[in-house]
């Protein structure tokens, strides 16, 4: 029987090894390195769209949420290049997001707001004016989608199978239970 190869890699210059590859963002969380995220849900692989979790991997920017650790990777989490890229991504998302946090059902549990707070870089843009936005679609009798809050993360790509678990995994409150159902 062949022995499994040990995966050896570096994060911020420190050597690590794993017997089995795993998601970069999940490993960073495990070792206490905080990187912002908006679209990533642990154990899922459809992240990477928001670009909020960018890190440097072997001198190239890459999303940490949808890439697995590989042998000889050199990962930099807080390089100037990674911090600037994450700030750009957060600025972009926030500049297209309504300033309705105070009335949103995700207040206190919004991954976009969390990314904003832990980005490690001054955010230059602010939320777009709220105004009256009517871009809301009724998905089912008890779930609605507010496109003005959507960051197109992919959690609800299959709109025909949206359920209450999908609503809970929505990072920004774009999906919401309606009619008082909890």
CATH architecture: Roll
Which CATH C-level class is it? Alpha Beta
What is the element string, with H for helices and E for strands?
EEHEEEHHEEHE
What separation lies between the terminal Cα atoms?
A: 52 Å
Biggest sheet strand order reads 2-1-5-3-4
Shape: globular
Can you summarize the main beta sheet?
5 strands, mixed
Average pLDDT taken over every residue? 81
Strand content: 15-25%
Overall description:
The protein has a five-stranded mixed β-sheet with strand order 2-1-5-3-4, with helices on one face. Strands 6-7-8 form a three-stranded antiparallel β-sheet. The chain is globular, with a radius of gyration of 18 Å. A hairpin with a 2-residue loop joins β3 and β4. The protein has a single domain, classed as Ubiquitin-like (UB roll) (Roll). The model has no long low-confidence stretch (mean pLDDT 81). Helices cover 20% and strands 18% of the residues. The protein starts with 6 loop residues before the first strand and ends in a 5-residue tail after the last strand. It is α+β, with helices and mostly antiparallel strands and 182 residues long. It has helices at 24-30, 80-95, 111-118, 164-169; strands spanning 7-11, 14-18, 54-57, 60-63, 74-76, 136-140, 143-146, 175-177. It is built from four helices and eight strands; from the N terminus they run ββαβββααββαβ.
């Amino acid at each position: 029987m062949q022995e499994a190869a040990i995966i050896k890699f570096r994060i911020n210059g420190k050597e690590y090894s794993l017997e089995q590859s795993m998601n970069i963002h999940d490993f960073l969380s495990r070792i206490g390195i905080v990187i912002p995220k908006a679209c990533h849900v642990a154990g899922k692989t459809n992240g990477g769209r928001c670009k909020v979790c960018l890190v440097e991997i072997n001198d190239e920017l890459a999303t940490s949420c949808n890439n697995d650790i590989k042998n000889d990777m050199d990962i930099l989490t807080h390089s100037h290049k990674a911090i600037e890229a994450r700030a750009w991504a957060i600025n972009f998302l926030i500049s297209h997001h309504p300033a309705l946090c105070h009335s949103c059902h995700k207040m206190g549990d919004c991954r976009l707001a969390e990314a904003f707070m832990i980005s490690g870089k001054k955010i230059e843009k602010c939320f777009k004016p709220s105004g009256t936005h009517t871009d809301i679609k009724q998905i089912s009798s008890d779930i609605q989608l507010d496109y003005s809050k959507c960051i197109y993360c992919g959690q609800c790509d299959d709109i025909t199978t949206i359920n209450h678990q999908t609503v809970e995994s929505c990072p920004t409150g774009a999906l919401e239970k309606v009619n008082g159902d909890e």
